[in-house]
Amino acid sequence: MPERQILLRALDTIGEDLRELEILYERYFSGEEKREPLQKREALQKRLRQFINRRIMKTDLRFRYESLAARYHTYAGYWDRILRLMDEGKYERHTGGNRPAPLVDQDKSGPKNDNESAYQQMLKAHKECALDRPAPSRKQFDAYLEKQRSSLAKKFGSHEIEFRVVTEKGKPKITARPKKAPTAN
C-alpha cells in the first residue's frame, strides 16, 4: 500500500478520534459522563506525537496533520482550563436539569405552552450543537419570545405566531411564522 494512503488513513482516524474526544469531554463537562476520558486523550496525543519527527513530503498531508495537531492543542488548552475551573469550584455544569416544572392548570393552546415546546427544541438543539456557552434560561427565552411576538404582531396582524428552533451553521436559531387557522370540515 502506498505511503500516501497509509498517512491518509492515519490522519482520517486521528480526525475521527479527535471529534469523538470533543464529544466525550462535552458530555463529561455537562455531567453525563462521570469520568474524564483520559485514556482516549493520551492515546490520541501519543498518535499525534508519532508524526512530529516524521518527514511528510506531501504538502496537503503535512497541512492536514498540522491542522489536526493545532486543533488538538487548542482543545487541550480549553479542556485543561475547564478542568482547572472545576477543581477550583468555579465551573457550573450546564445540564438543563433545573428547569421549572410546567404548570398543570395552564391553558393548552396559550402562548406559554408554545413557548415550552420551542424552549425544549432550543435545549435539544443547543445540546446537539455542543456550544461552549450555556443555553438561555427559561425566563430569558420567554422574554425574548414575547418581545418577538409583539413586534411580529404588527407585521402579521392578529395572527398567532408559531416559533420553531432550527440549526443553521452549527448554531440554534429561532424562526417565526403566523399560525395557520384550523380549517372547518
From TrEMBL:
Residues 105-115 have a biased composition (Basic and acidic residues). It comes from the Bacteria. Residues 93-116 are annotated as: Disordered. NCBIfam families: MXAN_5187_C_dom. This is Uncharacterized protein. It comes from Syntrophotalea acetylenivorans. The lineage of its organism: Bacteria, Pseudomonadati, Thermodesulfobacteriota, Desulfuromonadia, Desulfuromonadales.
